[in-house]
Amino acid sequence: MMDDYVPGLLPPEESLDDEELGEDGDGPGYLPVDRPIGSLAWGLTADEARTHEPFSQRLAHEVPDIAAEEFGDGIGDASDTDGELIDDQVGYLRAGRLVWATQDAGDPSSDLWAEDIGIDRAGASAEEAAIHIVSDDQFEV
């Protein structure tokens, strides 16, 4: 028996090593799908399980309406309101992982400083996915 054995922990010869984990040990992360995949399907409730799914719903599963997806509720196409705001200050390139950076003495006007280190293999949080890069020549001030 080993002298430095701690109950509840694997001995070093039985634990995973770097070759089994990969470079950093993290997987690619979980990215949720864009559409629900069965949580709204027919037959989940007891009443629906006793009856048949309506033919129109069954047909909608078989032949999807491409026109509805093509002309969906996009930005700026609201007809029953005063309109939607179109933000021209949203960049097209997504920023990567932001880490704390030191403040540059040449530009003391900002309170917060971060550096873009690129998109890593893990899934981004909602806050990270919302950050986009806006170039100076993309819009005129």
Automatic annotation (TrEMBL):
DUF5709 domain span: 89-136
Biased composition, class Acidic residues, residue ranges: 14-26
One Pfam family it belongs to: DUF5709
InterPro entries noted in UniProt: DUF5709
Region feature Disordered, mapped onto this chain: 1-34
Protein name as it appears in the record: DUF5709 domain-containing protein
Organism (species): Nonomuraea rubra
